[in-house]
Q: What sequence folds into this?
């Protein structure tokens, strides 16, 4: 770990900068707001010779992920990026990528899904793909967008894992916001991530059949094997976080705990809202409410044990979801948290709040109001608040 | 070739060996069998070229033989033979 | 123009089998013949990318694979996109000494090429990747049960263009895919038929030797879907050309070259009457469709002759 450089980068720039350093062989991508800066910056790097990678301007996101799978099976280290409709369009290909165990890194600049069309931040895109077998990481700020992109390659290519990894950064809020980012020197990243040596690839000397027709006598087993790889992520990610610490001096973990040691009322959140939640927690503390914030870097596989441990001995857990699962009992994150807490002793009250859809701003005051509602409900003996809404005009 | 456990299957169900299909003898499919009359055969190799399986082997001297392990009895060989050296006989 | 011939006789084809036997394709399968012959015409090791199709499903039921070459199947409509990724990455890795050189052949049925796969094909052609795309045309979505595709010819009965009392089969004409590909200005485009094996293998080789995208549209009769005796696959493949329903030609750098010009053509009835999918056309109230098809076939042949002659001049 030597002298790092501090530069101002938008989230998208930070992702592109990381990709430039990672010995990536092929990028096949299709532009979509708010990911466009990523693909444009990468184009500039490649055209200027700053990056030795093949750049394929595919004609749709479906082809972007398809070409990326091809490039990966050819033995290359690969990267692509998308958002919203693009992620939705490549939906079936995501399953193919994880089914074929391709170590692909995909950056998603989270944006709302049509209809109606909205280009601003929410998590419906990634939540719609949470079952796809991809490892799902969330960045809270531009530094994390940079760091997690580099880390993602290491994680994906681990021979015990070999799963594709999605790095999520909030659309516009992070993708287009300039923040202070400490970048690692090129040679150090390149040394940390030398050119990929694929174990399984298309090779005339060793012809492998990829993408078989698996009937009812083998499909279930192949999927069970995939789930095993997901579980390996939980086993091996601490080691990868440690290796990243050696590279960068920054220690990552599955969970980020803020004032959690004695917290009785916790806000659980993904992505950039964590910062606002911490501000809300500080204000609540001033009022004598022992608030804390739990944010997750790792969403899939879900770090159940750690979540259980950090939320035991709490009175209320207010889970904020920036995505809605229509007709469900709460937001996607809420459902995972609720299931995690089901077998813990002294279960806290759990509350689900949908917020921020389509880029609707969320304020510290609104978060505090939600926590107060949870506290009140808990004092009234309630166990659960299913799908509340924060900040929608006209009230709940 | 039954699978006993998910732990046996390579990741993604990839098949690491080429042409494992050879273990599946499609010869059991046929209901008529081609017979080559070698007195008529001119070794033009059309039957070998057109067999979809392929269930016709061609040796270094261009002699052809039907591989009954795989022949599905489609009759294309008999149809394309320019000298009608192949006849399809009921099984 | 100077066009090289690589194979002149049967013995020019290598003995090695890179496909099958043991696959589960129907007895007498046309596409099987096309795949096997294509692999006989290769010049160096190949990587095959295959769309979801009869060939894909029947050649790789886990744990059996009929392939002796590296083979990739991802989805139905993205063959050309997957191939694009492989071609470019392989190019880089070979230059860096990290991989073995190989040609990339993308194989898709008419379903995965004419219809759902058209976008990916168009994109790949426009980007100019060096790969060969072979469309195995059995004129319907055979793998899912003989449903109509954009390649289904006029008058044919399929399970989704049922020949009933009110509508006598598919009314639309077959999409002219080769012309769509030619419009992308790629260096090599050809039509082929398994009824003409020597013409086909030479085209495969010419395509592989092309510096840029190449495309072969090969007619592969399907005994199950077209409803004829399994032994007649090759015969029908020949008749399609002899009746000029499926002319054989190449377009090399934009210049047309018709490969088979019989002195006289057989009437299309010779072709239609052998196939169950056209049986209803011979009923009195549908006879006019046969005439319309004959007119269209004649007109397209004339157009092709004009294109051949005119393109010599550009």
A:
């Amino acid at each position: 770990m030597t002298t790092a450089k501090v530069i101002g980068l938008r989230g998208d720039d930070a992702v592109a900068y990381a990709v430039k350093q990672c010995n990536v062989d092929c990028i096949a991508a299709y532009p979509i707001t708010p990911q466009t800066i990523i693909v444009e910056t990468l184009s500039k790097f490649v055209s200027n010779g700053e990056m030795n990678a093949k750049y394929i301007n595919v004609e749709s996101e479906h082809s972007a992920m398809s070409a990326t799978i091809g490039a990966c099976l050819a033995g290359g280290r690969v990267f692509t990026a998308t958002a919203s409709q693009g992620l939705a369009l490549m939906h079936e290909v995501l399953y193919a990528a994880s089914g074929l165990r391709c170590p692909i890194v995909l950056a998603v600049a989270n944006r709302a899904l049509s209809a109606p069309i909205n280009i601003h931040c929410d998590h419906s895109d990634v939540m719609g793909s949470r079952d796809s077998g991809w490892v799902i990481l969330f960045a809270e700020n531009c530094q994390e967008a940079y760091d997690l992109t580099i880390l993602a390659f290491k994680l994906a290519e681990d021979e015990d894992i070999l799963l594709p990894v999605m790095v999520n950064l909030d659309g516009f809020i992070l993708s287009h916001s300039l923040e202070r980012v400490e970048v690692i020197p090129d040679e150090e990243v390149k040394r940390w991530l030398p050119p990929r040596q694929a174990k399984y690839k298309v090779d005339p000397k060793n012809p492998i059949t990829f993408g078989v027709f698996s009937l009812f006598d083998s499909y279930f087993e192949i999927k069970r094997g995939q789930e095993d790889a997901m579980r390996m992520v939980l086993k091996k990610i601490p080691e990868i976080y440690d290796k990243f610490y050696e590279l960068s001096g920054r220690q990552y973990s599955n969970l980020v705990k803020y004032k959690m040691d004695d917290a009785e009322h916790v806000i659980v959140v993904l992505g950039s809202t964590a910062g606002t939640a911490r501000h809300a927690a500080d204000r609540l503390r001033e009022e004598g409410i022992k608030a804390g914030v739990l944010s997750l870097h790792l969403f899939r596989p879900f770090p159940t044990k750690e979540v259980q441990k950090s939320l035991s001995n709490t009175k209320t857990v207010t889970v904020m979801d920036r995505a809605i699962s229509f007709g469900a009992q709460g937001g996607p994150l809420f459902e995972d948290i609720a299931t995690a807490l089901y077998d813990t002793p002294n279960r806290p009250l759990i509350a689900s709040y949908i917020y921020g859809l389509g880029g609707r701003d969320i304020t510290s005051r609104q978060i505090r109001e939600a926590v107060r509602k949870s506290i009140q409900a808990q004092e009234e003996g309630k166990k659960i608040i299913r799908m509340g809404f924060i900040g929608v005009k006209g009230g709940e | 070739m039954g699978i006993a456990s998910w732990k046996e299957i390579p990741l993604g169900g990839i098949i690491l060996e080429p042409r494992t299909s050879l273990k599946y003898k499609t010869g059991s499919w046929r209901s008529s069998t081609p017979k080559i009359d070698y007195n008529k055969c001119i070794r033009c190799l059309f039957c070998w070229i057109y067999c979809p399986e392929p269930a016709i082997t061609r040796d270094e001297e261009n002699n052809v033989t039907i591989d009954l392990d795989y022949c599905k009895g489609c009759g294309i060989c008999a149809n394309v033979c320019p000298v009608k050296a192949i006849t399809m006989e009921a099984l | 123009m100077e066009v090289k011939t690589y194979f002149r006789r049967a013995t020019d084809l290598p003995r090695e089998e890179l496909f099958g036997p043991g696959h589960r394709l129907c007895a007498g399968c046309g596409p099987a013949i096309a795949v096997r012959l294509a692999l006989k015409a290769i010049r160096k090791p190949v990587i095959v990318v295959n769309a979801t199709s009869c060939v894909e499903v029947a050649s790789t039921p886990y744990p059996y694979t009929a392939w002796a070459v590296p083979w990739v199947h991802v989805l139905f409509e993205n063959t050309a996109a997957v191939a694009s990724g492989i071609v470019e990455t392989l190019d880089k890795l070979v230059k860096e000494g990290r991989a073995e050189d190989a040609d990339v052949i993308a194989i898709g049925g008419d379903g995965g090429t004419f219809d759902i796969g058209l976008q990916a094909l168009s994109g790949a052609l426009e980007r100019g990747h060096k790969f060969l795309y072979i469309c195995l045309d059995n004129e319907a979505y055979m793998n899912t049960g003989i449903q109509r595709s954009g390649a289904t010819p006029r008058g044919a009965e399929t399970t989704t263009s049922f020949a009933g009392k009110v509508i006598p089969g598919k009314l639309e004409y077959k999409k002219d895919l080769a012309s769509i590909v030619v419009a992308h200005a790629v260096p090599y485009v050809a039509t082929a038929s398994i009824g003409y094996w020597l013409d086909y293998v030479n085209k495969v080789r010419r395509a592989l030797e092309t510096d840029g995208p190449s495309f072969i549209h090969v007619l592969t009769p399907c005994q199950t879907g077209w409803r004829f005796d399994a032994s007649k696959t090759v015969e029908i493949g020949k008749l399609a050309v002899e009746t000029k329903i499926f002319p054989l030609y190449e377009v090399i750098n934009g210049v047309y070259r018709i490969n088979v010009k019989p002195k006289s053509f057989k009437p299309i009835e010779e072709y239609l009457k052998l196939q169950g999918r056209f049986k209803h056309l011979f009923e009195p109230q549908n006879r006019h469709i046969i005439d319309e098809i004959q007119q269209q076939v004649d007109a397209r042949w004339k157009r092709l002759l004009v294109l051949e002659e005119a393109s010599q001049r550009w």
Remarks:
- Chain A has a mean pLDDT of 97.
- The longest helix of chain A spans residues 219-248.
